[in-house]
Design a protein that fits this description.
Blueprint: H1 4-10, H2 15-19, H3 22-36, E1 40-45, H4 50-53, E2 58-60, H5 62-70, E3 77-81, H6 84-93, E4 99-101, H7 117-131, E5 135-140, H8 145-153, E6 157-159, H9 164-174, E7 177-181, H10 184-193, E8 201-205, E9 210-212, E10 222-225, H11 237-246, E11 251-254, H12 260-265, E12 268-269, H13 272-281, E13 287-291, H14 294-303, E14 308-311, H15 327-338, E15 345-346, H16 350-363
Parallel strand pairs: 1-2, 1-3, 3-4, 5-6, 5-7, 7-10, 8-10, 11-12, 11-13, 13-14
Antiparallel strand pairs: 4-15, 8-9
Length: about 375
């Protein structure tokens, strides 16, 4: 597949959109939405900026949005305000007549980029030399279509942060060992939650192409890919300690993409939806420190003025790649559609899509 950077170079947003006022951009977006009606469906991931979210027909996490898009049979154009792997999943699940568009092709995902197909196939070959036919691969949905396809053709499945526990338990009912990629922290936290000790978890380093494990490899139950979310890994034990010291009555809730030690010291840990639901259901006056992406934390602060909410890391920035999608890029994408010129279309090759669907269907 053409790389994100090559596609971005081929589709650079015209300067005029950068020079438009916010009011003009809003007006143009609203006008095109009204004109195209049900032919257009805009998806907005929870981590997107408010300037983009305001035009979303549906908001949610990556897989939830892809599933919502698949149900929009009348939508000819699906504009996914998220990152590249999310738009790929939407294209995999979409009907053949539907076109999935990513407003800015630079919107990638550092975690998904930490596992490419060549690295994964080499790792699988080397690990089979060590462990034989005893492993089942699982991949977080935050991965490329090619990685999903690899997992699909090797009998595995995808997982989300919401159903990771159920899927890991399913994997162990199939095979003796779990090969989990690309996020080591979600894999480690989930395996730990079902009772597997840290001492039985190894890490595969795709750069050095070696297994990191102290002890006898016969004791390994979980092999974690050495990848992570660059946002969630920046929440630290020191952040937790600071909140405990400065706000002793504050609840700490984090995403399971955070490090094991951070999750272990927190009061609650769960998916983006879990965090949103927990804050929504919390009583007025309750206090929360949230360990997840900053755009979402700010939105929760604005939506729940009856509660005291802060970021677990006060110096945290929004996800840089998520932030690539802004109002100018959205309007550019919408006006291009209106003019009969589809830009930044995400198309997953048929064979890859077919194998990736196997991984998704096993999860469903």
């Amino acid at each position: 597949m053409l790389s994100i950077l090559n596609q971005a170079a081929a589709n650079t947003m015209p300067q005029k959109y950068k020079e438009m006022s916010e009011e003009e951009l809003k007006g143009r977006a609203a006008a095109i939405k009204e004109k195209l009606g049900r032919k257009l469906f805009i998806l907005g991931h929870h981590y997107q900026k408010d300037e983009v979210i305001q035009f979303a027909d549906a908001t949610g996490d990556s897989l939830q949005l892809a599933q919502v898009a698949a149900k929009q049979k009348d939508a000819e154009f699906i504009v996914f305000c998220g990152v590249h792997f999310m738009a790929e999943t939407a294209d995999i699940l979409a009907e053949t007549h539907q076109k999935v568009i990513l407003p800015d092709m630079r919107a990638g995902c550092s975690m998904a980029d930490m596992a490419n197909i060549n690295q994964t196939e080499r790792a699988w070959e080397k690990l089979q030399q060590i462990f034989g036919d005893t492993m089942l691969p699982l991949t977080y949905v935050n991965s490329t279509a090619e990685i999903k396809a690899f997992v699909g053709r090797n009998g595995g499945a995808t997982v989300t942060s919401s159903n990771a526990k159920k899927m890991v338990e399913w994997a162990f009912a199939q095979k003796e060992l779990l090969f989990f990629l690309p996020d080591q922290h979600l894999g480690r936290n989930t395996a730990y939650d079902i009772g597997i000790p840290l001492e039985q978890m190894a890490v595969w380093d795709p750069i050095a192409e070696k297994l990191e494990f102290e002890g006898n490899v016969k004791d390994v139950k979980v092999i974690l890919w050495k990848g992570h979310c660059s946002v969630h890994e920046n929440f630290t034990v020191a952040n937790v300690q600071d909140v405990r010291k400065q706000h002793p009555d504050m609840n700490i809730i984090v995403h399971p993409e955070c490090r094991r030690e951070v999750v272990g010291l927190s009061d609650y840990a769960g998916s983006t939806k879990y965090i949103i639901d927990k804050i929504t259901e919390a009583p007025a006056g309750s206090k929360w420190a949230i360990g997840t992406e900053m755009n979402l934390v700010k939105r929760l602060i604005n939506q729940h003025s009856d509660k005291e909410i802060i970021s677990l890391n006060p110096h945290m920035c929004p996800c840089l790649t998520m932030n690539r999608i802004d109002l100018p890029h959205l309007v550019w994408a919408l006006e291009s559609v209106d003019q009969g010129k589809v830009i930044n279309q995400i198309t997953v090759p048929q064979q890859i899509a077919a194998e990736a669907v196997q991984a998704l269907q096993r999860m469903f």
